[in-house]
UniProtKB/TrEMBL annotation:
Residues in coiled coil: none
Record has Lipoprotein as a keyword: no
Keywords, in A-Z order: Cytoplasm, Nucleus, Repeat
Subcellular location: Cytoplasm; Nucleus
InterPro entries for this protein: ARM-like, ARM-type_fold, Armadillo, ARMC8/Vid28
One Pfam family this sequence matches: Arm
This protein's name: Armadillo repeat-containing protein 8
SUPFAM superfamilies: ARM repeat
Length: 686
């Protein structure tokens, strides 16, 4: 306790009426905490922040005292999010901004800029700077403008000041509105020329700010790509910097490239990005001079939804390297002198990047499995960190998209049981990603389907239908959809009974969320797909009137396209198997009108589904002397005339079909269905 006494006295001295005592105490504290995390923590516990904040808030505080107090703020801000938050709550942001305005002492101005840069290093403080953005942005850009036109532009001190201004600008760009505020103030035209100054620290700061300015902002990405400098477009400049000798410049240039590429604003440089940026990032994975976390994140971002970029990453050896990085984080987990939080972030980023890289291509998935990726995923599902669990589930979802992998390697991996544990996890993010991965393990080709049924997966999925999380309910319904494909009749009956036809029909109502309604309609489609067991269950539950009303609702023009498609194939399944059930469809004017209206849909998938319905309705024939009318088979003698052509003709179906056949713009799948439907009219034409 005695060792704390002198430090406590220094803090107490900050309230002295004598400016000299205050100054000396501040200088002593400053010298103690700079570079010392222990001393920062000590003064943090001694509640120094309110005292420093109060000194900066007073109008008559001496400049030299302000410089010392501001330097302390800058040092304490580096301590972490908690210290920065307390500084912010103490009102230092307002004080710092007032100290950089014109007329301020030069040394105080520079100290304040450094403190602002340190304070804005955290998400919370960046977001809290909203009210100050409009005053800060013009000031920061004026620093760049004045320095650019100054005779001292080549001095190191001048570049350091520009660097600070540029870094702060980038830290302000945390929302789309702030990105536009910075861009509209003229930042793009000022920043791009700085990339060619040849001063590495300034180039790195500029690249970071361009990255923050362009992140997920298509309009700004396009504006950046369109601004020429000395006859060169920004993508070309960035690709050149991606080959720079300084690894940090290479990394930051690649991050900017990934932003432009993701927003499809890289012009004609896609091939160059594959041949330059991807290998550059691959090499940086093995470079000790840059943070591996940002490299992995940049690779994942660059490869997102771009199959060719994913192949380029695989060819550059990225998959094996990221798996190696994950292995290293796993081996260091829990070890002494390891930054556990950083370790977790790297592992999480690794799984997410791999998930992105294997999302589209079979080659990439095969490469990941060859490098024992499944074993790491299984272990990651039991990790203490929920973020890693969720990332592992997401990666699993993409890897098991592969039918060959799902049939072979996945069944031997032991992945099902940990995944089933996670579908009931308390954390929404984990539950959502785990249930999404489970969808791909339950199709008819998956050997894990039988094992999942033994593990009572149906009961688990029924339980999840009561989840408060929309995407968990949606994923559970999708899992049920997959279970109903090519399943034996006994299991189908069990699933129908446990899930409840009435429940599925109820959530297919228009009031349900679109993604829930879509999957509910998909479940009903699959229930009725292979025999009339499901159709019988629906009619027994709802009755004929409510059933056709439900079907009509699914085909409403306001219904979203995926739900309409499921609704059409549900109608088709009911119509094609039994003349008795088809009767309800053919004689229900509103339902038949809804089907016919969708025949000419500009969306080919919808048009094909509607034409299948017309085809199935027209396929039922009148009984002949040689046949008998059957409620289950329905067609009677094979030479009988189509039973429901009159109902179809009342709606002008033949004329519609003939008109479509003459439309050269129709895709092949729609044209084939039109011809098939017109075959039922051939006898009438004779």
């Amino acid at each position: 306790m005695a060792s704390l006494q002198p430090h406590a006295e220094y803090v107490q001295q900050l309230q002295s009426p004598n400016p000299v005592d205050v100054y000396m105490a501040l200088r002593t504290i400053k010298n103690a905490i700079i570079g010392s995390s222990t001393k920062k923590s000590l003064y943090f516990r001694l509640h120094i922040i309110p005292h420093v904040s109060a000194l900066l808030a007073m109008d008559d505080t001496d400049v030299q005292i302000r410089i010392q107090a501001t330097t302390i703020v800058s040092s304490l801000a580096h301590k972490g999010e908690d210290a920065a938050k307390e500084l912010l709550e103490g009102g230092v942001m307002v004080s710092l901004i007032s100290q950089i305005m014109p007329g301020t002492d030069a040394l105080l101005m520079e100290a304040s800029e450094r403190a602002l840069n340190a304070l804005l290093s955290y998400t919370g403080t960046k977001m809290s700077a909203e009210e100050h953005t409009y005053s800060l942005v013009p000031y920061l850009l004026s620093i760049v403008t004045k320095a650019k036109d100054s005779a001292q532009i080549f001095e190191m001190r001048t570049h350091a000041r520009i660097e600070l201004a540029v870094l702060i600008l980038g830290k302000l760009c945390v929302t789309e509105s702030r990105q536009f505020t910075v861009a509209n103030a003229g930042a793009i035209e000022l920043l791009v020329p700085l990339l060619l100054r040849g001063y590495p620290r300034l180039q790195i700061a500029t690249l970071r700010t361009i990255s923050a300015l362009s992140y997920e902002n298509m309009e700004i990405c396009r504006a950046l790509a369109a601004v020429p400098h000395d006859g060169r477009a920004l993508p070309a400049i960035l690709l050149e910097l991606a080959q720079h000798q300084d690894p940090e410049i290479r990394l930051q240039a690649c991050v900017c490239i990934s932003n432009l590429s993701r927003m499809r604003a890289s012009g004609g440089a896609a091939r160059d990005i594959q041949s330059i940026a991807v290998p550059a990032l691959a090499k940086l994975l093995r470079c000790p001079d840059v943070g591996v976390l940002q490299v992995v994140q940049a690779l994942g971002y660059l490869c997102h939804e771009d199959a060719e970029m994913q192949i380029a990453a695989k060819n550059a050896g990225v998959i094996a390297d990221i798996i190696h990085i994950i292995a290293e984080t796993e081996s260091r987990d829990g070890a002494d002198f390891v930054d556990s939080e950083h370790n977790i972030q790297v592992a999480k980023a690794g799984f997410l990047a791999l998930g992105t890289i294997v999302s589209a291509g079979e080659e990439c998935r095969t490469k990941a499995v060859e490098n024992q990726m499944l074993a790491y995923l299984v272990r990651a599902m039991d990790h203490r960190d929920d973020g890693i669990k969720a990332a592992a589930c997401l990666c699993t979802q993409y890897i098991v998209r592969s039918v060959p992998i799902c049939r072979t390697h996945v069944s031997e991996s032991g992945i099902l049981k940990p995944l089933l544990r996670l579908v009931r996890h308390d954390t929404p993010e984990v539950q959502m990603t785990a249930t999404a991965a489970l969808i791909n393990l339950l199709p008819d080709f998956s050997p894990l389907r039988a094992e999942a049924l033994k593990e009572n997966v149906v009961d688990i999925l029924v339980e999840l239908l009561d989840s408060k999380i929309t995407m968990v309910r949606r994923n559970a319904l999708w899992c049920i959809r997959n279970l109903l494909v090519n399943i034996d009749d006994g299991t189908r009956r069990t699933i129908i009974d446990k899930v409840g036809i009435g429940r599925i029909c109820a959530i297919s109502h228009p009031d349900s969320e679109p993604v829930i309604r879509e999957q509910a309609a998909g479940v009903l489609q699959n229930i009725t797909a292979e025999n009339d067991q499901g159709t019988l269950a629906i009619f027994d539950c709802l009755g004929a009137g409510q059933t056709v009303d439900m079907l009509t609702g699914l085909l409403d023009p306001q219904t979203d396209t995926p739900t309409q498609v499921h609704g059409l194939y549900l109608v088709n399944n009911i119509a094609v198997r039994s003349q008795a059930y088809c009767e309800y469809i053919a004689k229900h004017r509103a339902l038949l009108q809804a089907i016919v209206a969708l025949v000419t849909s500009p969306i080919s998938e919808v048009a094909v589904g509607a034409l299948w319905c017309v085809n199935s309705i027209a396929s039922h024939k009148m009984p002949t002397a040689r046949g008998s009318n059957s409620n289950s088979g329905g067609s009677g003698g094979e030479d009988g005339e189509p039973r429901y052509l009159a109902e179809l003709e009342e709606l002008g179906v033949q004329a519609i079909l003939e008109g479509m056949l003459g439309d050269a713009s129709l895709c092949l799948s729609v044209r084939d269905r039109v011809k098939s439907c017109l075959d039922y009219y051939a006898p009438l034409a004779i």
